[in-house]
Write a structure and sequence with these properties.
about 45% helix; 17 helices; binds uracil; alpha+beta
């Protein structure tokens, strides 16, 4: 077997057998297959695609290419969650403690921000002292005590994905449905949970720009889960505009705490409760309606907020900021972006908002750049709202005047103000699970 023949096979649109995929992945991880050949293969996959069976084989081989987490010593159902990435998406901080407060376990390994999208690990690290680099023993100990623990993904887990993702990033092969599905599901398999709920984002700020593409990705991931022994379901949620009002790390933690206290923006509350209910349903905690009621109950009685506080304390975090966000380190500068005209907000482009947040230092412009945890944007007005000329659209938080000015110019491009009210945006498109598609 050699890589040249495998590239030729895929280039012609043939299916790669399991032993061929294994040769390719294990050879690449062992540094025996060079980047240029793997790049050619990725591009061939990008154009020719993969069958569902081929993608499942690829996923299992990738999952086995590094360490795995053993959660078998934790009693009860362990339910994982994954978002395909968005702007202002702080749902993990809300959903994990809700699920834990309802009696299930919510272990979660998260990533850092990527491009214009934020990452849960960066958000958590804005809580002074919060450790995301727990050892496996520490992770299990927090999980036993709090039923949830949120940590950074170990580099050794699904090693092939780490290497392939970096290569895809520089060879314009990220947005391939089989490559995204195998990347996500290989990590989920290696994390050792009993089931996973996927939040597949759809829209301007997401990898999947249309509901149709997102549905295809969701169906493939659910299918891979079935083939690999990891029950999975997927919620399709809107990412045309940012989720919630806050974009930027400590601002997002503060907003997540508002939702856990029963307040916060309606869109964020709705998506979070739907995801939590979906996870409880996967864990076998009742019908969808019963699970929704339990999730709402855990917010209303304060147990979800208390769970987050206990978990943060167990991971070294200063919990004072969770009760009072004014105790977070604050940005030096604030700048208000105002509306130039009167009308309705007919576009609020999530990707452009995310790029403006990166200019403020809330995300990384280069791979190893430092994050400014206090930087970010609070949106005062969102899609569909009426504004008058001079009204505040958003407040930008920055370390310097120059950063604030550059980001404000970019943020302004995210908005379109029109004389007529735009059509309502769909927040949740539906759910894909082992039984098929459900409109809610
Ligand atoms: N998220 C992942 O983990 N992998 C992808 O390929 C895309 C989004």
């Amino acid at each position: 077997m050699n890589m040249y023949d495998l590239i030729t096979k895929k280039k012609r649109g043939d299916t790669l057998a399991c032993d061929e995929l294994s040769y390719m992945i294990n050879g690449y991880v062992a540094d025996e297959i060079p980047d240029y050949q793997m790049s050619a293969m990725l591009m061939a996959i990008y154009f020719r695609g993969m069958t569902a069976e081929e993608t499942t084989d690829l996923t299992k081989i990738m999952a086995a290419s590094g360490g795995r987490i053993d959660l078998s010593s934790i009693p009860g159902k362990k339910i994982d969650k994954h978002s395909t990435g968005g702007v202002g998406d702080k749902t993990t901080l809300i959903v994990s403690p809700i699920v834990a407060a309802c009696g299930c376990y919510a272990p979660k390994m998260s990533g850092r921000g990527l491009g214009h999208t934020g990452g849960t690990v960066d958000k958590l690290e804005s809580i002074p002292g919060f450790r995301t680099d727990l050892t496996q023993e520490e992770f299990l100990s927090v999980l036993r005590a709090c039923r949830t623990s949120l940590i950074a993904q170990a580099g050794t887990l699904a090693r092939a994905d780490k290497l392939l993702y970096a290569l895809r990033d520089v060879t314009a092969t990220v947005d391939s449905i089989p490559l995204i599905a195998s990347s996500i599901m290989s990590k989920k398999l290696a994390c050792g949970a009993d089931a996973v709920l996927l939040d597949v984002k759809v829209g301007r700020g997401a990898f999947m720009k249309t509901a149709e593409e997102a549905r295809t990705l969701a169906a493939l991931m659910v299918d891979i889960g079935r083939g690999a022994g990891l029950p999975a379901a997927a919620l399709l949620t809107n990412m045309d505009a940012p989720l919630g009002n806050a974009v930027g790390n400590s601002l997002e933690v503060a907003e997540a705490m508002e939702v856990l206290r029963g307040e916060g923006p309606a869109d964020l509350r709705e998506v979070s409760l739907s995801l939590a209910a979906g996870m409880l349903h996967l864990a076998g905690c009742g019908t969808r309606a019963e699970c929704r009621a339990r999730a709402e109950g855990a917010v209303a009685d304060g147990s979800a907020f208390e769970t987050f506080v206990r978990m943060a304390a167990a991971q070294g975090g200063d919990t004072a900021v969770l009760y009072d966000p004014r105790k977070f380190p604050q940005a030096k500068r604030q700048c208000v972006l105002t509306a130039r005209e009167t009308g309705y907000i007919a576009r609020l482009d999530a990707e452009t908002v995310g790029r403006a947040a990166v200019l403020l230092g809330a995300g990384r412009a280069t791979k190893n750049a430092a994050i400014d945890h206090a930087a970010g944007i609070c949106l005062d007005k969102k899609y569909g709202e009426r504004v008058a000329a001079g009204d505040a659209l958003a407040v930008l938080y920055a370390d310097s005047e120059a950063q604030a000015a550059a980001a404000a110019a970019r943020l302004e491009e995210a908005y379109a103000i029109e004389p007529a009210a735009p059509p309502p945006q769909r927040l949740i498109y539906g759910t894909m699970d082992a039984e098929g598609w459900h409109d809610r």
